[in-house]
Write a structure and sequence with these properties.
TIM Barrel, globular
């Protein structure tokens, strides 16, 4: 693995059933489908994963399940904030990027804030131009190819195409950045053949008008 992480890392949304339980079958469904793309890897229990609503036991299950279903070439990043969580992630096979020997393992990494990765979907093209090496992306849950297109345009030095794709996703990115944005993201995932499902309470499901707004925002960047 190169010294710097590169490419698109999806900050995974956590799939819940209608009882509010995390759902292994839907983790498998999403990860297997993302595996077919050229995303570099997955951030598990990060900002888009409703991690503040997950118990430590649920986080561990998510780390286990994603590791189980991820393709061998995908890099996994654990959203482990506390020393106890980091230690548990390591027990499951994740490694800390700063530790000697971690670079020898192409799949498992446990870090909090990867250097060189852009954390904003809205400014991705600009961040690449300024020297970023990739992105931890929320919108890629629903439209990974849109983020991949920006990345590939940058790699081929096609700044016009990168800017065009950045403009295309602007409305959708703005929408999922609002209040109730996780619910909007999950509905967009449902529209695109992934499993989003309901947000966990106290977050609310979308109203019919809000669903139509998501449909309009993602029109033209789906698939």
């Amino acid at each position: 693995m190169p010294g710097k992480l590169q490419g698109i890392f999806i900050s995974l949304a956590t799939p819940f059933n209608h009882k509010g339980e995390i759902w292994e079958t839907k983790v498998e469904h999403n990860v297997v489908k993302w595996n077919r793309t050229t995303v570099a890897g997955y951030v598990v229990c990060g900002a888009a994963g409703e991690s503040e609503q997950l118990s430590s036991e649920e986080k561990v299950r998510m780390w286990e399940w994603v590791a189980k279903f991820a393709a061998p070439e995908k890099i996994l990043i654990a959203g482990a904030g506390s020393p106890e969580e980091i230690a548990r992630a390591k027990e499951l096979g994740y490694k800390d990027l700063g530790h000697k020997g971690a670079a020898d393992d192409p799949k498992f990494v446990a870090i909090d804030a990867p250097g060189g990765l852009c954390g904003s979907d809205a400014g991705f093209a600009q961040a690449l131009a300024a020297g970023a090496t990739g992105a931890i992306s929320t919108i890629a849950n629903a439209v990974p190819y849109a983020m991949i297109s920006i990345w590939e345009a940058h790699r081929t030095r096609d700044t016009e195409a990168a800017a065009d794709w950045q403009n295309r996703i602007a409305g959708a990115v703005e929408l999922i950045g609002r209040q109730n944005g996780i619910a909007a993201l999950k509905y967009a995932m449902d529209l695109n053949g992934y499993y989003g499902g309901p947000p966990r309470l106290p977050l609310k499901v979308l109203t019919p008008d809000q669903k139509r707004e998501v449909e309009r925002a993602f029109e033209g960047i789906r698939g």
